[in-house]
Amino acid sequence: MRVVVTGAGVAGATAALALARQGHRVQVLDRDDGPRPAAVADAAAWERRGVAHFGQPHALLARLHAELAAGLPDVLEALRALGVPEVPLPDGLRTVWCRRSTLEWVLRRTLEAEPGVRVRTAAVAGVETAGGAVRGVRLADGAVVPAELVVDASGRRGRLSAPWLRVVADEPAEEVYTSRRYRLLPGAHPGPVNRGVISVAEGDGYAVLVFPHDAGTFSVSVTRLPDDAELGAVRELGSFEAAVRAVPLAAVWTDPDRARPESGVMVMGGLRNTFRTLDDAAPLGLHPLGDAVCTTNPHFGRGCALAVAHALRLAGAVAAAPDDARAWRTGVEAWEHGELRAWFEDARAIDRARAAVWRAVRDGRSPAVEGAPGGGLPTLLVLAAAAADPLVGRAVLRHMHMADPPAALEAVHPRVAALLAAGWAPGRPTPGVPGPTAGFAAPPRSRLVEHLTAVAAAQPA
Asked: What pLDDT does 300 receive?
């Protein structure tokens, strides 16, 4: 079968590799003309204009590791050969400390070497159809590339599937990320890690996240509300470094005796939670993947894991019924409207609850976590209880790494309810439970704002 994949990011590369290994002839069309750097050490500087968050920090979850181990084990082996650290987690889960640029470099190198795959630089203008099915894609120069299967992995702003995509949900994620990348000095060891794959200091109106990566690099992100003008000062280099030094967890990681900065300050905003679906008029053989269907706040790093899972579900549907495009659509949509939609709703609920708490703190009101629909405990409250009870902590870790479906977290609701009845509250330490990063709590937002204001006032005009 002739397959065209538009977009050579994580979703597109995964789909192309999996389909080519079934014996199909695959052309990958990518609009970015920057060639893959010859050396992985140069991958961070790779020109990937079509992937706006390419250089931003990423956490690669245990779900991503499991999907690659099942579907593309040679990609994991290539990462290991490059020295990418594997991170063991409870219950036999595993993940890696790896930059997005390193992962994409390995995927692209594997793609370029794969028999039956051709990677081209080209801009796609539309889908060619006949008799209710795809017949190929039309390029910007008017040429047509024939195909019986068209995979749209062109991202949230891609237009290939747009005529048939219907918006189910679209709302702001209510979070802005301001980040900087650092490199450990020779002989220096990583700082403390309290979430398995990343380290987090939760403030009362913001959060600071440290992302360990490969090759001795790591990133620090300060996250805030988009309309928090006072914390918006962290966009400036001096204020960002002042904020990092004011948060003990980040200060330990970025101590000049441990690490040096390797990038400027990077800001990522305009984030949205979106879920779209193909309508019934969409031609058979057209399959949007990844961000073309679902985007969520990157706070929990689910994007890459869901993109790989989505691509492998399509490949599995094709393998199960190679000549039945209707079966491909039915199989993939069952997963999209089931598990994918569940993870989307989980992210949206957490974002809404977090934004409400942060906004109350900023406005001087008493913060309270909003109740969940149907009267259940809100997920944000359950996540906050992870450090107060080991069984809740285990369930939360499995949830954060997408090892269990979102609904599995309900099993620990009674334990969280008992904690609340005993007087526990989010942000309040539990006697006898120091936690892996005790002593590294983030300062209150009000104190951080005072500190940033004083730093700004001391700067020359």
From this structure: 84
